[in-house]
Specification:
Number of helices: 2
Low-confidence stretches: none
Shape: elongated
Structural class: alpha+beta
Radius of gyration: 30 Å
Helix content: 10-25%
Mean pLDDT: 81
Distance between the termini: 119 Å
């Protein structure tokens, strides 16, 4: 019996020490410097646009804050999740698309309501090889309508998302394709022009980004 009492006392002492150490650790954490961290308040699925109600700011001890975490809601809201994020997780830079990093993939650079379409080009249809990502272009095509020809703007003010692979020709490199963002309702018309007509890519001025809705041209002869 006396032995059982001694064992019980020893266990009580051990438990008391553990509680004391836990309380001490809480005090230390409370005294530690904190910083704001963006945390998910709900499960967020991959390819989801982050909305304000999905995240919140929490002040966490610096030792618990991930070095790659965001500290501002403005940096997160409106971005796209590249993978699933669980509620309670810190939002890390590697988990969201920024639209400019190579490892984000082309899909994250396509604006909502648009589709990426690749146009085959050469020196003459592709503005002499001077196109770059971010440029704005029009697509003009010549089509056959009945017994006559018609030249018209098929799509206007399209953003160049990517310039495709390049071929070396006489010590110079020229791209052979350009991928542009096309409003989804214009894709069928553009596809028809690319398939049935002769088309040309037209580079717009950097300060000219308004759709002009210019009339078609029909030869009179």
């Amino acid at each position: 019996m006396k032995k059982l009492v001694l064992i019980a006392l020893a266990l009580s002492v051990v438990a008391g020490i553990a509680v004391f150490q836990f309380a001490l650790s809480l005090t230390t954490r409370t005294d530690e410097e904190t910083r704001p961290v963006v945390v998910a308040v709900t499960n967020i699925e991959a390819a989801t646009v982050i909305k304000s109600e999905m995240v919140e700011l929490q002040d966490l001890p610096i030792s618990y804050a991930h070095p790659s975490s965001y500290n501002s809601l403005e940096e997160v809201v409106g971005r796209v999740a590249k993978e699933n994020i669980a509620a309670g997780e810190q939002i890390l830079t590697s988990r969201l698309s920024v639209g400019s990093e190579e490892n984000d993939g082309l899909a994250y650079t396509v604006p909502s309501g648009f589709r990426a379409v690749t146009l085959e080009t050469d020196e003459f249809t592709g503005v002499g090889g001077y196109l770059q990502s971010g440029d704005r272009v029009d697509v003009v095509a010549t089509l056959v309508t009945g017994t006559s020809f018609i030249s018209e703007y098929i799509s206007e003010n399209l953003e160049v998302l990517e310039v495709g692979a390049k071929l070396r020709n006489d010590s110079e490199e020229e791209y052979i394709s350009v991928t542009v963002a096309v409003p989804k309702d214009q894709v069928p018309k553009l596809n028809y022009a690319l398939t049935e007509g002769e088309y040309r890519i037209v580079l717009r001025s950097a300060v000219d980004q308004e759709a002009d809705n210019l009339p078609s041209y029909v030869p009179t002869d």
